């Protein structure tokens, strides 16, 4: 059915219907199910994030793998077969660990990208309902409006002030005006004004179209570069750590060349010193650091997902830890978002009042069907929470259904709510004329009113009555209620004129209106959010509440939440309009609540906070919130928001809850902590083998370790333990610290204070032990090397427990809350014990079984290093924290 040769934009609508065997009422459910089985889901082709062939090729680009392969090949050439086996085993293990790291993080990202679904409004059997866009088929009739993402390629049959952003396809940022006129000549995609295309964003207006292409046959589906992106860009942190790794690699390479040069000068067998220098380089280069960081960020994203937060990019997990200001919407984030009309204040005919609530409304009411049908029983109301509350009030107080109402009073046009206009207006046929129903902010509706409806009779409204109405809504607003005013106006224009009204003409029609009254809407505070706000404050994060509600409503909610509510701590949008950006920057730290703000105000607020040096997270749900989300360091979209807002966001709240933002920040800080721990762990032993080998050459004594022993200890130390640290749970005080400074280095004062002294002390201790046994004992060189080998391989398995927290004493930690780390340590000890006491491995690794006293010495050195770290941490706490 997806005929590539058909030029749908050249056909008249009826011809399109005939060719697709559809109708103006849409497909039946049975036909849609049949077509779905034939055509498959409406899903763009996805290339797997992880492919084994590409992974192996990427591994062959690694300098570390090159070094190992060269070393293994030389070992085979000179018949050092045991060395070759160990070296190629190291290659296999490095690739294996890399495989798991990339596969794990890749699967996490793939899962995350599939969670957010594009919802389509489809008309089937004449009824409009919402479905997952993957269930759309060719011939479906779809309804679109501002804020939606186009779910399939469609030929328009109705377009009202419709503008679509098609930059995904054309590269043009300006929105394209759409119409329903057929086009006779051949035109490129960007000029097909009667078509809408998958992935485009509806910026304005509304429309109806018939689906002509789905999945990979859509225009965007043909663009492989856009739809089959297999690689994830590295985050700035990964890039910085990769750069650090390259610097270390250069230093180690120079050291390795120096080892070969000095060894050759000292007349050590060239093949032995060459293979040893390769092993030293492999052990010293922290090649896996960027990959481990990717795993840490993926683990963080997965944990956030379990708390109903969806991180769209790994970089967001990194940025969350630095958040110092949260600009949060009130509705649905700090409150439950489950609105209900609590009270009506009106002297009008109540029937007319409820009509205004239902008709001046953008909510979708799905027709109820049986349990076996495709929609839930009872009328399901979909849309913005205020619209849902208004519609529910109508349904509870009316003897007719919404569909019956729309049949009796057909809608001719609608002006969607706009923060600038502050109202929504819907144009309907009524009796022999046209009536416009309006709902909006009380201030605006009262200002536009020329009369008031009293028991069905319009009377001249007086200034005194307006002041009384203002006092009424202000009094209710003090109780934290959202206030909505309703009105209507009858216009004389004919139907055809109204059908063709543009936005300006509809706005101009809303004048000299008749006031109907007030609706007080309650939206309860989310359970536990007050306690969470205190936790946020303890974490050094500033909460700023943004709301479109009246100042008095905002103050009442702010007081309930525990926010400052004096007059100096709140600012209205109207006041913002009167001050410059510079003045706003000066005052920004004094304001905790912004009331009656629109998206433009929100954008200015976010910019002001950023300009005073803060890292800002901001929430949004509407199409006009997208600019603020893009400007913020972390854009947060609520799950019930528009597609365009989710597109601009870094984090999506699947449950719309403020608690999810806090949990995301917690995991962001944990990710930063774990990256520091891994970095300290990997760098603390990086240069030990270099120092040991170079020291032995300079002192003209035998080498403390041979190549296969260095490679084995590298597998034990840098194989699983550093990877296991990626799964460290949050520390108890993670939300009691100040936010992480923007661009704070991983190797900060705290980390450096541990990593560098630890590395230096390790080198001194090991070299001293080797020198002592070599000079003052009767043991042969193989036995002494085994002591050094065992010490080097096990000491990190002891002190890694101390690195579970870089500032807290080991006696205040839970040492057993990371099962991955416990497994890695157990496996590491098993490998080292086997290497020392199994005869088969004694032969391969040239080790000797240690006596009990020397095994205890090895353990003692490991425990000593642990307490050295604890002592260094204590010094740091006392010197820098004033403890």
Automatic annotation (TrEMBL):
It is found in: Cell membrane. GO terms for cellular component: plasma membrane. GO terms for biological process: intracellular potassium ion homeostasis; intracellular sodium ion homeostasis; potassium ion import across plasma membrane; proton transmembrane transport; sodium ion export across plasma membrane. Keywords: ATP-binding, Cell membrane, Magnesium, Membrane, Nucleotide-binding, Phosphoprotein, Translocase, Transmembrane, Transmembrane helix. Its main location: membrane. It is a multi-pass membrane protein. GO terms for molecular function: ATP binding; ATP hydrolysis activity; P-type sodium:potassium-exchanging transporter activity. PROSITE patterns: ATPASE_E1_E2. This is Cation-transporting P-type ATPase N-terminal domain-containing protein. It comes from Candidatus Yanofskybacteria bacterium CG10_big_fil_rev_8_21_14_0_10_36_16. The lineage of its organism: Bacteria, Candidatus Yanofskyibacteriota.
């Amino acid at each position: 059915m997806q005929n590539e040769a058909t030029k749908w934009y050249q056909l008249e609508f009826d011809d399109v219907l005939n060719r697709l065997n559809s109708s103006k009422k849409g497909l039946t459910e049975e036909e849609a199910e049949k077509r779905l089985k034939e055509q498959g889901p409406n899903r763009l082709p996805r290339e797997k994030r992880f492919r084994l062939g590409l992974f192996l090729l990427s591994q062959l680009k690694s300098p570390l793998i090159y070094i190992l392969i060269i070393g293994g090949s030389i070992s085979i050439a000179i018949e050092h077969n045991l060395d070759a086996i160990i070296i190629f085993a190291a290659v296999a293990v490095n690739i294996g660990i890399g495989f798991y790291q990339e596969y794990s993080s890749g699967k996490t990202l793939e899962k995350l990208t599939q969670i957010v679904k594009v919802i389509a409004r489809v008309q089937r059997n004449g009824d409009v309902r919402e479905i997952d866009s993957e269930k759309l088929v060719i011939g479906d009739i779809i309804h679109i409006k501002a804020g939606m993402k186009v779910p399939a390629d469609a030929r328009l049959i109705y377009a009202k002030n419709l503008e679509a952003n098609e930059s995904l396809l054309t590269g043009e940022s300006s929105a394209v005006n759409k119409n329903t006129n057929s086009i006779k000549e051949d035109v490129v995609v960007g000029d097909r004004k009667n078509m809408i295309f998958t992935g485009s964003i509806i910026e304005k207006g509304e429309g109806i179209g018939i689906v002509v292409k789905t999945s990979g046959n859509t225009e965007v589906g043909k663009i492989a570069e856009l739809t089959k992106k297999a690689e994830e860009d590295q985050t700035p942190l990964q890039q910085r750590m990769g750069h650090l790794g390259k610097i270390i690699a250069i230093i180690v390479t120079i050291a390795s060349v120096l080892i070969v040069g000095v060894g050759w000068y000292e007349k050590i067998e060239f093949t032995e010193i060459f293979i040893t220098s390769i092993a030293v380089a492999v052990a010293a280069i922290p090649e896996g650091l960027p990959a481990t960081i990717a795993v840490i960020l993926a683990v963080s994203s997965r944990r956030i997902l379990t708390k109903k937060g969806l991180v769209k990019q790994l970089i967001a997990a990194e940025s969350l830890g630095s958040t110092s200001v949260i600009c949060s919407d009130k509705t649905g984030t700090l409150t439950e978002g489950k609105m209900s009309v609590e009270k009506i204040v009106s002297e009008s005919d109540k029937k007319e009042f409820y009509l205004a609530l239902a008709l001046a409304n953008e909510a979708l009411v799905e027709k109820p069907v049986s349990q076996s049908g495709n929609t839930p029983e009872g009328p399901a109301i979909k849309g913005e929470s205020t619209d849902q509350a208004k519609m529910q009030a109508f349904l509870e107080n009316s003897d007719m259904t919404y569909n019956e109402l729309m049949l009796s009073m057909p809608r001719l046009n609608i002006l969607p709510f706009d923060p600038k206009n502050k109202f929504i207006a819907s144009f309907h046929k009524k009796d022999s004329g046209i009536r416009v129903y309006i709902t909006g902010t009380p201030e605006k509706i009262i200002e536009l009113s020329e009369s008031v409806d009293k028991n069905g009779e319009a009377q001249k409204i007086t200034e005194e009555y307006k002041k009384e109405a203002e006092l009424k809504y202000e009094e209710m607003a003090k109780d934290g209620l959202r206030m909505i005013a309703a009105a209507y106006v009858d216009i004389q224009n004919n139907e055809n004129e109204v059908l063709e009204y543009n936005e300006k003409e509809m706005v101009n029609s809303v004048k000299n209106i008749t006031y109907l009254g007030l609706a007080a809407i309650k939206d309860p505070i989310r359970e536990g959010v007050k306690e969470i706000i205190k936790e946020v404050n303890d974490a050094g994060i500033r909460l700023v509440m943004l709301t479109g509600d009246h100042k008095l409503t905002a103050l009442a909610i702010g007081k309930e939440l525990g926010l400052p509510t004096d007059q100096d701590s709140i600012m209205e949008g109207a006041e913002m309009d009167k001050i410059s950006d510079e003045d706003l920057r000066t005052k920004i730290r004094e304001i905790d609540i912004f009331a009656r703000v629109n998206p433009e105000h929100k954008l200015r607020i976010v910019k002001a906070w950023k300009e005073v040096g803060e890292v800002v997270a901001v929430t949004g749900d509407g199409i006009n919130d997208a600019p603020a989300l893009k400007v913020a360091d972390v854009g947060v979209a609520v799950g019930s928001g528009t597609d365009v807002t989710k597109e601009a966001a870094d984090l999506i709240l699947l449950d719309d809850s403020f608690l999810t933002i806090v949990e995301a920040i917690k995991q962001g800080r944990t990710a930063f902590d774990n990256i520091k721990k891994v970095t300290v762990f990997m760098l603390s032993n990086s240069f030990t083998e270099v120092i040991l080998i170079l020291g032995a050459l300079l002192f003209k004594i035998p080498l403390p370790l041979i190549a296969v022993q260095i490679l084995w200890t590298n597998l034990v130390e840098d194989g699983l333990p550093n990877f296991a640290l990626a799964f460290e749970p949050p520390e108890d005080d993670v939300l009691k610290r100040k936010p992480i400074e923007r661009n704070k280095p991983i190797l900060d004062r705290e980390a450096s204070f541990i990593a560098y002294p630890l590395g230096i002390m390790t080198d001194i201790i090991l070299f001293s032990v080797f020198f002592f046994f070599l000079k003052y004992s009767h043991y042969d060189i193989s036995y002494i090397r085994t002591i050094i080998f065992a010490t080097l391989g096990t000491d990190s398995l002891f002190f890694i427990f101390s690195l579970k927290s870089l500032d807290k004493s080991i006696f205040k930690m839970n040492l057993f809350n990371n099962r991955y780390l416990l497994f890695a340590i157990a496996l590491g000890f098993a490998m080292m014990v086997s290497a020392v006491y199994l005869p088969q491995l004694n032969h391969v690794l040239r080790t000797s079984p240690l006596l009990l006293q020397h095994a205890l010495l090895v353990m003692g050195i490991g425990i000593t290093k642990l307490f050295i770290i604890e002592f260094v941490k204590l010094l740091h706490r006392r010197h820098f924290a004033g403890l």
